[in-house]
Amino acid sequence: MITKSIKSLIAARRLCCGAAAALALTACADWDDHYDADQSLLDSQHATIWQNISQNSNLSQFAELLKKAGYDQVLAAPQTFTVWAPVNGSFDYNAVAAMSNDRLLTEFVENHIARNNYPASGTVAQRVYTLNEKLMLFGGTGSYAIQGVGIDKPNVAAANGTVHLLNGQIPFLQNIYESLNNYEYPIDSISNYFHNFDVRKLNELKSVQGPTLNGEITYLDSIFDENNELFTRYYAYVNREDSNYSMIVPTNEAWRKAKATVSKYFNYLPTFEFMENTSTGADRKKVSVNIRDVAYLKDSVVNQMLTENLFFNNNIYDNRKLAAADAATNFSCDSLYSTTYCKLYAEDAARLLENTRRIAKSNGYVWLTDDSLRMRTWTVWNPELRIEAENRNVIASSVNVANDNEPARVYVTPGTQNPDVKGQLSANAYLDVQPVSQSTNPGVVFYLPNVRSTTYSLYLVTVPPVITNARNATKPYRFSVTMGYADATGKNEDNDRSWVAESAFVSDSLQVDTIYLGDFTFPMAYYGTGDYYPYLRVNSAVTSRERANYDRNLRIDCIILRPKELDDYLKQHPGYKYDTGLY
Questions:
Q1: Counting beta carbons within 10 angstroms of the beta carbon of residue 255, is it exposed (0 to 12), middle (13 to 18) or buried (19 or more)?
Q2: Is the Cβ–Cβ distance between 30 and 157 less than 8 Å?
Q3: Closest by alpha carbon to 559, among 459, 480, 482?
Q4: Strand partners, 492
Q5: Which of 232, 374, 198, 361 is nearest to 308 (CA)?
Q6: What backbone phi and psi angles, to 5 degrees, belong to 318?
Q7: DSSP H or E stretch at residue 220
């Protein structure tokens, strides 16, 4: 089949040469336009690229490597290629021959071959994509080079393309994705995790079909589309040559230590109780939840936490400084945004890059850590949880509330806020919990999503009655809080108030008030378990005799679950800036 194609092509070329005046734009005329009348070059065009290479004693090493990779058949097929062939002794043959077949194919063979004709004549300044999709600079005037490697003998014309004899090996510049291997740096841990999500699929349209054997199509040149689920999940397409990213790559030791730290935030129980709070009183239902494989869930979540915020698009915001920086030393910026929208302010951004080694790649940079991944725990793995009270998805139920037990969502813009009220609402809205009558105390139950197995300092942010109307009464609120959660055995604990700082709390009636409730330790993590959450119950706590002093309404902006280590750090560093997570 191949021989027949070659003979047909040769016959066509002979016909073409015989009719050159009429067919000036055909292949033969193309050769005549570009090449001197060197008879050896003209003779070479009657043979395939593979025949030209395999019969040239100066290319015997290159020919052996092509054959080992299966490219002897590809370069004999009727497709048009340009090959930059390194001559014997111009490259480390033994090192290349020792490569695995995959590396040999991608890093060496396909690094020296491009589709279509790229002759060297006159002035050349071209950007060429080789078969491994690397962008090469091919150019010169009189003398030529590709990626800085000089050409000894250009323009060996072949029946299916061109061969340039090269004085050296074209350097293979990995992209970030290709850098996640286990033979250059000690990064097996992240490499193995990342490659678990690889998908490789044959592209039948781009591949060259061979003979049909036993009823199945074979391929002389198999082109595969390679993908990885994490590219899409993390919005980081680090396999694309036309992209520009930075990736923080932890060494094995850095991965091990970080994983030990992250793991403590994701302790799960195989069985736990969950209270459905969509109703009140005796109507509430308690269900038993079973996690089929606790170890698998924990490992999956921990690995995700370790990897999902390591990617940065160098083309946006202050991330551009990552591409401009010579090294990590004294790196400074206002903030960095990961591809999953985690924001690191100046202090945390500089800390993340401490003692990293910046390595240029074909589509950006790898920042290789030393033995530590300097990611503060609260920036990604155990962030502050800010639950917006007006978000209907977190309101489990309410009691003694007007409007059919539906607390009202109220929006406040900077223009409508009373200028005498200090403080600012998060998300410019709050929940107005109005009592069904002036003789009752309203209450509301909030679910707390994404909780980790850690200690939080809890805060409730209240909104004063005069937030938009200065004529409203300026009485403060008096309220109590309790927690519902699964204890260390999985049993649901309801109305626990043992952790609260006060039996009842009083708000400031003239400002947006952040009130410390107390520190609470969750025995188990809820993140990743589905729609199962602990819950916080907030009740107005005003007696009949106290009505003159307190407002029974509850105006709530948000609930803050701040990791204890972050809360302590803020007390020691009051000017510290960090990203606050909203739910």
A1: buried
A2: no
A3: 459
A4: 486
A5: 232
A6: -75, -5
A7: strand 216-221
Task: Say which range, 25-34, 404-413, 534-543, 566-575, has the weakest mean pLDDT.
Answer: 25-34
List all residues 6 or more positions away from 548 whose beta carbon is below 8 Å from its beta carbon.
none
Closest CA to 533 of 282, 264, 273: 273
Strand segments, DSSP code E, in 371-512 are 385-388, 395-399, 408-411, 429-433, 443-447, 455-462, 478-486, 492-496, 505-506
* 213 beta partners: 216
460: which strand partners? Answer: 515, 559
Between β-strands 478-486 and 492-496, what pairing exists: parallel, antiparallel or unpaired?
antiparallel
Q: Is 396 left (phi over 0), alpha (psi -120 to 50) or beta?
A: alpha
pLDDT digits (tens, 9 = 90+) for 146-157: 999 999 999 999
C-alpha closest to that of 168 among 92, 98, 106: 92
Tokens 């593979």 sit at which residue? 50
Give 558's Cβ-side CA count (13 Å radius).
18
Question: How distant, in Å, are the alpha carbons of 244, 268, 336, 338, 427 from that of 343?
Answer: 19, 28, 6, 7, 17
Give the pLDDT score at 13: 31
The identity of residue 54, as a single letter, is S
Contact indicator for 35, 42 with CB cutoff of 8 Å: yes
Q: Could you count the other beta carbons within 10 Å of the beta carbon of residue 276? A: 15
d(CA 309, CA 373): 12
* Greatest Cα pair distance in the chain: 113
Q: Which residues of 45-67 are buried (b: 16+ CB within 10 A; e: fewer)?
A: bbbbbbbbbbebebbebbbebbe
State residue 384's pLDDT score. Answer: 97
Q: Where are the beta strands (DSSP E) in 26-159?
A: 81-86, 113-115, 123-129, 135-141, 143-146, 149-158
Give pLDDT tens digits for 509-530.
999 999 999 999 999 999 999 9
Query: What is the three-class DSSP state of 430?
Result: strand
In the structure encoding, which two tokens stand for residue 202, read together?
Answer: 């044959």
Angstrom CA distances, 463 to 229, 439, 515, 547, stand at 44, 22, 11, 19
Hey, what amino acid is at 509?
A: S
Give SS3 for 271. strand
